Amino acid sequence: MTDKQELQQALQALAVHYAAELPAKIAEIESRMQSLLGGNADSADLRLLHRQLHSLHGSAKTFGFPAVSESARELEAMVGSLIGGRLDAAAANAGGELLAKLLTASQVPNNLLPVGGSAAAVAARNQATRLIYLVEDDPRTSTTLGQQLKSFGYTVLKLNTVEELANAFAREAPSALIAELKFSDHAQRAHDGRPVETPLIFVSEEDSMETRLQAARAGGDAFFAKPVRIGPLVDRLDALLNPAASEPYRILVVEDSAEQAEFYSAILRDAGMRTHVVTDPLCLVEALNDFNPELVLMDMYLPDCTGDELAQVIRQNASFMSLPIVFLSVEQDFDRQLRAMFRGGDEFLTKPISPQHLALVATSRVERYRELRVLMLHDSLTGLVNHSRLQQQLEIESARALRQHQSLSLAMIDIDHFKEVNDRHGHQTGDRVLKNLARFLRQRLRASDVIGRYGGEEFAVILADTTGEVAEEVINSLRRDFAAIPHETGSEAMTVTFSAGIASLANHASVRELILAADQALYKAKSSGRNRVARNGG
Fold it and tell me: What is the pTM for the complete model shown?
């Protein structure tokens, strides 16, 4: 079964469940309407009936009952006009006719909206692994490149002949193929039939227009002249292997209808996104802090409040001032939509919305949000989060760890003798070392770990759900591998080491104490000889 078929099946199952529940919903509305028409409904009953009709109006068309949705809309308007008013004979007659129309519409079978496949989902499901085939007959180049790529988290299979290459391709297709240009014809043949995502990179002793044309004609996605600088090569590999964002988009769905919430979530999950559903508006702030969404998809009318009121609550927190908020509603009044936007929303979508449209809106909004946050919150040289954002994220992660009774550790990392690097080789080389360390940390640490440039040559890593002992093992492994990476200085290559200090939240009462403890551990590592890791409290 294809992924498109699986999604279609899941949404149809939701529609079947909704259809099975619909008679009970209609029966409850009919009972309340009869009480209203008989003069036996108080104001609380009237408001509850209005709420039920609004919910039916919003959900019925989504699950293939357009006539029910339209009848519920008309009845909702009629009942709404009675709130604060009175039921006269004309209104009673109109209400009876509209109720009969709703009951008739509920007998029409549902027709679920068709669903198309998602390009984003295909990309997410086909993310490349990290297996690299390296075809190079020069042992020194092969060994050097292999070790450097391994340090950045790639698995490298070194091949010396075209026969070995053909046999390797027969066993398993790699994530990427890096080959000496002299093997271009054989590499191209071995490469035939590969998935389109798999890159082919050529390297050569000669760097001329002719060699670059030869690489392009052989299907090369990139070309590097020897000696190959590992930084640009890893950057290019990362861009080719992961053209989309490495982390799934995080979408918070605020919707009191469980059926609709699951419908939207299924569509977004198929598009490769992560979702979290809030059906109780009073739980919104907790969900914002725990899930840290990149988009809020919110119904306009919720129990006890409206969506634009919730948007104002979200905007009260400086951390979520730029968080995109997209309203979903059956509201057709353009002035009402504008008021909702003015009070904190970014976009207004009218129900029902097609799955393709929903996925595209979510994608465009989150991509823009990520671009803006990179500019606002990230260090321009390394691309890591900056000092202020790191402090803010540490507060958030610490609060989450305490609520969920999880471990959390902080590592402070400082490049050894960095002033000497700048003085001896120049600031351009120093900047290259900083970028290489940032790239190395991103490659080797988890997506859930927060990596930041704390200042100058000092970095910090927040390791969620990680004890001090485990954090020490992880950082020590990184320290050993980073020390083996050569850094270009122009005429030669050099190696650089770092020292690190570890502290755990379990041993400290506040974020301030945690930072101070990690700093003290770092000072201990530096004063004990550098190129080592020290842990505060053990």
Answer: 0.50
